[in-house]
Amino acid sequence: MKIAVIGAGGFIGNRLVEQLHLGSSHAVVPIVRKPWRLALPARFDLEWRLGDALDAVSLAKALAGCDAVIHAALGDPRQIEAMPTALTMAAAAAGIRRVVYLSTASVHGQAPAPGTTETTPLHTSHAMDYNNAKVRAEQGFFHEVARHRLEGFALRPGVVFGPRSRWITDLAQDLRLGQAWLLNGGSGICNSIYVDNLGSAVLSALTAPAAAAGPYLVGDAETITWRDFHHAIALGLGLDPSDIADIDRLPSFKRSVSAKVRRVVASPGVQSLLPFIPGGLKRTTKQFIAATQAAPSPNAWRLPAAPAPRITEELALLQQCAWKFPHQPATDRLGYRPHVSFKEAIARSLAWFAFAEGRA
Amino acid sequence: MQMNPLPDSVRPAVTAKALHPVILVGCGAVSRLFYQPTITELSRRKEARLVAAVDPVASARHPLIERFPQAAGVASLEQVDAPEGSLAIIASPPRFHAEHTREALARGWHVLCEKPMAATAADCADMTRAAEAANRVLAVGLYKRFFPTSGYLRQLCQGRTLGRLQSFDLQEGGPFNWPAASPSFFNRRETPGGVLLDIGVHVLDLLLWWLGDPASFDYADDAMGGLETNAVLKLRYDGGATGRVHLSRDWATRQRYHFEFENGTVEWTVNQANALTVRLNGLPASLQGTLVNEARVPALTNPQCFIAQLQNVLAAARGEETVRVTGRDGERITRFLSSCYANRRLLDQPWLEPAEAARARQLSAAS
């Protein structure tokens, strides 16, 4: 098959291109939006193409002659919601039936209720805009897939890690700076999936029977806690895991004024009204927001603070997770097998990280 | 790039009579971001004036013609009307450098050729011979030579101020974000190399200038039938110094050059034209600061060095200075680059599946 990968310059898209080109008999067509995203795909002698994941016409042109398409493009919440429409329209125009869309386990929230599966109804009342956008995007995807009579597969991975992943690099930095932390000893479930295992799931979806089309949760074979994840990285970096801060209370995540305003501005209703708002009013609003964000003047009579845990809302939610997503439906209907063990996945991720840091 | 005006104390402005005609060949990103503000500043100082912007694509010429309305916007070099002794800046795509340079020299113009000078050392040698035969200046656009820090490091490497150089570790690059208008940058049939040919040219130029030719080297990159995005070069010098260079268009490197001398270490952040960090062995902390002259005036900044490069070439065209980076230098760098590519091996990528790594080796060997 000739398989197009949209978002081929990103962390997951790049790895899919590598897996398809180096490890399968399929021909791969990397698609990126801008020429400068070609740095990684251009390492191979491939027929890469330019295509905008938000523009069905441009995308259809890029998909010409392909037999299947994988969508791994990223974007902000508004873009995430708009992409499935362009994707399905373009696939239909290019005569492609098999479409694999990378959704996320976060459509169920970062800390889903025990018992959650693919059949659990989705909602858009999550604390994080990203989750709500992905819910709408996935729902839109299946709606459009049905309209265009395509074979749509949406994969819902959890914490995707591996070479070039922020889960490795950000954690390494936090560990070195003394800003890493674990909630209640790190007993929360990290629904990890090594990027190669996600690649296996994508390949399975590409060749699964059309009747198997639908959404699938996918993950690593093992049940991994956040303690397991943090300790493995710390040990791999030669750091003492016992130095990781253990906390039992999380801060409240109140949105700043500017974040609230940005959220309102980003909503589709306000976006449609923006062209009618006078430029002066827009400027005044921006100045007001900037003023509320002004950093306080440094106090010369303060000593530097000791490193404090860097607690993001996303990680705070993730570490409260008490449920390992099952991937039995993916195994049964797609033939998915997470072939790389967690131990091996960490070893490969750290091998890449050592290279990226110039230590190898 | 934001360019600050040069302090007038750097080099006194010449009279309007000396306003040097300049032709800009190629109106891509480097012309828009670097040469446009440079020529603007030298026009203000009455040292240069743009007489023509050459590019086959009208929309590429447009921003320059808008900025310099007195200049002619033309599609090819033969359409340019400029007197002998003008300066042609060759900023076209690298595969045209040799052809455009020869054409400019044949018109009696001096040439500043953007890096990389040409695809092969033979082309570079041919360009140099053409310049010598025409009795015209041929300079290569490697402006990091003009960084005050570059000169400072050269003296440290060649002198004994901090003792003998023992080792160095150079890391440069990050996710590719050069606003190239076309994907030709990543097309092996249009561009002969990847990250080594791009930012590596600057690094190799500085290394050759600081330390001369290495006694031996080992070069590896991750091209697997296409163009490399990561490259690692290990060098060994007569006298025992060793070095490692890591270049990337893939992932953020430390953007740092680290030198270990017998009596201390020096760190330079990439593109910091006038700042260094020095640690003397035995002392408890490093010194980080800006290079200043006797009057405590800070040395030239990065954009000011780009302007200084053009000033140097114009002064050489007037016979007042020698060119800082010559065609011979460009040829030497290109020869070393070619040696790297000729002796390349695939970078170890232990994060790939074993079967993928084997296939990667096949693709690499076949390319």
Report the CATH C-level class of the largest domain in chain B: Alpha Beta
Helical content of chain A (DSSP H or I, runs of 4+): 40-55%
Q: What is the percentage of strand-forming residues of chain A?
A: 5-15%
CATH architecture of the domain at 2-165 and 192-221 and 323-340 in chain A: 3-Layer(aba) Sandwich
- What do we call the CATH topology of the domain at 2-165 and 192-221 and 323-340 in chain A? Rossmann fold
Could you tell me the radius of gyration of chain B in angstroms? 21 Å
In terms of topology, how is this protein built?
The complex is a heterodimer of chains A (360) and B (367).
Chain A: E1 2-6, H1 11-23, E2 27-32, E3 49-50, H2 56-63, E4 68-71, H3 77-94, E5 98-102, H4 129-148, E6 151-157, E7 159-161, H5 166-177, E8 181-183, E9 189-190, E10 192-194, H6 195-207, E11 214-218, E12 224-225, H7 226-236, E13 245-247, H8 257-266, H9 268-273, H10 279-292, H11 313-318, H12 328-334, H13 342-356
Parallel strand pairs in A: 1-2, 1-4, 2-3, 4-5, 5-6, 6-11, 7-10, 8-13
Antiparallel strand pairs in A: 9-12
Helix pairs in contact in A: 1-6, 2-3, 3-4
Chain B: E1 20-25, H1 29-44, E2 48-54, H2 58-67, E3 72-74, E4 87-90, H3 97-106, E5 110-114, H4 121-134, E6 138-141, H5 148-158, E7 165-173, H6 195-211, E8 216-221, E9 230-236, E10 242-248, E11 256-261, E12 264-269, E13 275-280, E14 287-290, H7 302-317, H8 327-342, E15 345-346, H9 354-366
Parallel strand pairs in B: 1-2, 1-4, 2-3, 4-5, 5-6, 7-10, 8-15
Antiparallel strand pairs in B: 7-11, 8-9, 9-10, 11-12, 12-13, 13-14
